[in-house]
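thread from #wetlab-drylab

HS: before we spend reagent money on co-crystallization trials with magnesium ion, can we at least see a predicted complex? here's what I'd submit
DV: go for it
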Amino acid sequence: MPAAVRLALNQLQRDRILVPVWILGIALLGFATASAVSSEFGEVGERQAIVAVAAANPAFLFLRGVPDGFGIGAVVFFQGFAFTALLAGLMSTLLVVRHTRTDEELGRAELIGSTPLRRTAPLAATLLVGGAANLVLAGCVAVGYIAAGLPAAGSVTAGLAVAAVGLFFVPVAAVVAQLMPSGHSANGAAASLVGAAYLLRGVGDAIGTPNADLTQVMSSWVSLLSPIGWGQRSRPFSAADTMPLLVLAVAAATVAAVVLITRNRRDLGASLLPERVGRSHGRLRSFVGLAWVLQRPILIGWCVGAAVMGGLAGGLGPVIADAVAGNTSLKELIGRLVPGSSADIVDVFTAALIGIAGVLAAAAGIQGVLRLRAEETEGRAELLLTVPKSRTNWLVANLMLAIASATVVAGVAGAAAAVGIFLTGTAGTPAIQLIAASLAHVPAAAIFIAAPAVIFAAIPRLSVPIGWGLLAGGLVLGQFGELLGLPEWLQAVSPFHHSPAMPVESFDPGSALVMGIVALGGGAIAAYLIQHRDLTG
Amino acid sequence: MADTTDPIIEVRGLGKVFGKTRALDGLDLSVAAGEVHGFLGPNGAGKSTTLRILLGLIRPSSGTATVFGADPWREPVRSHQDLAYVPGDVSLWPNLSGGEVIDLLTGLRGGADTALRRRLIDAFEFDPRRKTRTYSKGNRQKVALIAAFARPARLYVLDEPSSGLDPIMESVFRSEIGRVHDDGATVLLSSHILSEVEQLCDRVTIIRAGRVVESGSLTALRHLKRTHFRVEGVDGRVLANLPGIQDVRVDGLTTEFEVEAATLPLVLEGVAAARPTGLTVSPPSLESLFLRHYAEPSSANDGAGEDRAGRVD
Ligand SMILES: Nc1ncnc2c1ncn2[C@@H]1O[C@H](COP(=O)(O)OP(=O)(O)OP(=O)(O)O)[C@@H](O)[C@H]1O
Ligand SMILES: [Mg+2]
C-alpha cells in the first residue's frame, strides 16, 4: 500500500466521528430544505411568486443566490446552494488545517516526518482524505435530494456542485496552512477565504440582471471570482452543465500540485511569516491581560469580517432601493412575505445583514471562551492555576473578555454600515440607529458565549463541539427556520430568534433583559462548576 | 497559624482513580519545613499525580493532603500563596516571548525580584526576547525554572525540573536549589536523576504503583542497603558458605557478593579467616537500592500494566 494511502487511513481514523457529522449534517440540511420547499411551495403559482420576489430583490440574491426557474428542484437549489457550499468549504478547511499546520505546531508531524516516507506524503494523504470526504459528501447530498423527491439527474449534479466547492477549498486550505504559523491562525485565514467566497458571490448575484418575467437572474461577472459562483453556474435543475464543476476540479488539482511542490521545499514548522524577536520584559500581570493579548489577533480578524458585512449592509442599500423603486406590486408581494409587512425593503436587507454580523460577534466570543479549553489540553492552564488566584477568577476573566469582544465586533458592524451609507451619499438609517441595531444582538450572542463556558466547566471534553455546534444550530434555525416551516417553539429555541431585527422591528428591552439574565446565570454556573472538577491534560 | 515544626506537606492514605486506572493507592508523604525531599519512582508510579493533587489541580479520590496546613482542593488560593511550581511538561504561549511569560507567571504570584530575575537569566544563559515557539526543550524548561526561582517562595514543587538541561545548566539548577534551601525554603523534587537526588536531597520517598515502598533520610537508607565485596585470591567455594551473602559471582580466584548491613561483622570475620590477597569493599550505591525498588514487584496485585499502575477491579 502506498505510504500516502496508509497515512490517509490513519487520518480518516482520527476523523471518523467529526467528518461524518459534517457530511450527514450538510446532507440532512439539503433533505430538509427540499422537503420543505415541496410541501410549502407545492403549487407552481406559489413558487412563481417567491421566485419573482427574490429575482427583483437584491437582498435575497445576496443572501441566497440567483433563482433559476421555478421548478421545485430549481427553487431548492436557489434557496440552499450557497449556504450548503459555504458549509462544505468550512468542512474542508477545518479538515485540512487539522492534519497539516495543527499537527506541525503540536509536534506530531515531526514523528511522521522521521519515518522513511516522502516529505510530501502526509500532505498528499490529507489532500486524499479531503477529496474522499467531498466525494462522499456529493453522494450524500444527492441521496438527500432524491429522497426528498427531486429529480435524480439534477440531484446528482447538485451534489457534485456542493462537493466541487468543498474540493476547491481542500488545496486552498493546504496553501494557507503552509503560510500561517499556527493552527488557529490558519483556520481563521482559511475560513475567511470561504466567507469571502460567499460574500463575493453575494455581491455578484445582488447586482445581477433579472430576465423580463422575473423567473431567472443572470449573476454578474463578480460571482465568477468565487468558487461558489462557479458551482452555482452548474444549474443542476434547469440547463444542467458540469463544465463549471470541471473548472473547479481542474483549479483544485492545479493548486494541489503547487502546494505539494511548496511543501517539498519548506522546512517542517516554518511559515511565511518570519519570527520576530519579542520583548524581554512583559507587562502582563493578570488573567485578563493574558486573555486580551491572546484574543487580540482573533478579535481583529472578526472585526474585519464584521466591517465587510456592515459595509455591504450600508453600501448596497441604495442599489436595492433603485431596483424596487416604482414596482408597487412587487413591493406588496415582499411586504406579505417578509415579517413586518410595511417594512422598507432596504431596511429588511440591512436587518438581515446585521443579523449575520450578530452571528460573527457570537463566534468571536465563543472562540475566546474555547481558548480556556485549549489552555487546559495543551498544558498551560497547569502553569496558570498554581498561582494564588482562583479558577473562578480565570474563567470569569476570559468570559468577560469574550463578551466584550462580541460587543466590539457588533459595534464595528454597525459603524461600518453607517460608513457604507455615508459613502453612497444617500440618506439612510442614522448611524446611531445602525449601531444600536448591531448591539441589540449582543444579549443573544452572550448566551451563545456563556453556553460553552458552562460545558467547559462541566464536561470539558465536549466544550468545543458543543460550543460551535450550538452556534451552527442557531444559524441554521435563523437562516432556514422560516423556510423549513419549523414550528415556532423550535425556532424560538435560538436566542437570535429573540433579538429584534432592527431597524425593521423595534428594540425589545424585555427580551434583551431576559437574555442578559440567562447569560449571566450561565456565567455564574460555569464559575461555580469550574472549581469542582479535575483539571485534565 | 501553623507551628514551624509542622510539616509543610502532609499526605495520608492518598488515593486517586482515573477511570479504570488506580494511579495512587494509599500514599503517605510528609515533608518537613526546610527540607529538600526527593520523590522517586518508576514511570507511571504516580509522582506527577501526587504533585497535581498537592497543587489542587485534581481532587483525591480518597485520603487527605495538606499544604501549609490547608487542603489544596478546598483552598487553592491559600495553599498557593507562597508556592512555586515547575510542571513535568512545560507548555508555553507560542506568541509570547520567554521574558513575557516569566513576568506573567511571577506577576500573577505578586511580582518578580528584579535583581534575582536578572541574575537567573544570566546564569541560565537565557535569551528572554525570543518567542517561546522558537525555544528548544531545554529553553522551555528554563522559562519555567526562572519563573519559579525569580520570586522567593516558601515551597517549591518541582516535577522533573532538570529534564532537558545540559550538564552546565543542571549545575546552575542545583546551585539554585542550594540557595533556596539555605534560605530555609522547602523543596519537593520529583526526579529520575539519581545523582541529583543524592546531591540535593535530605530525605527521599520512593513510590511504586501509587504506594510508598521506602521513605527516610538518605543516611538511613544507606543502612538498609547491601555492601558490595570483591575478594581476590580465595577459592569461591569457601566464601559461598558465609552467612547472609547474596548474588555471589565467582570468576577464577575472584569472588563478588553483596552483604546486608546486619550480617556485615560475621562476613568480615569470615573473609579475614579466608586470607584473601586482595579486597575491595564498595560503599552502598543508591543506584542499586533504587533499581531494586523499581524492578521488584511491590505487591501481589501489581499487574503487568505497561505503566506499572494498579488496576481497579
Ligand atoms: N488524566 C489521567 N487520566 C487517566 N490516567 C492518568 C491520568 N493521569 C495519570 N494517569 C495514570 O496514572 C498513573 C500515574 O501517572 P503519573 O503521571 O502520576 O506518573 P509519574 O510517576 O509522574 O510518571 P513519569 O515518571 O513517567 O512522569 C499512570 O498510569 C498514568 O497513566
Ligand atoms: Mg510525571
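DV: Chain B touches chain A at residues 52, 55-59, 76-78, 80-81, 83, 85, 87, 89-97, 99-105, 107-111, 128-131, 133-134, 144, 157 (CB under 8 Å).
HS: ok that's useful, forwarding to the group
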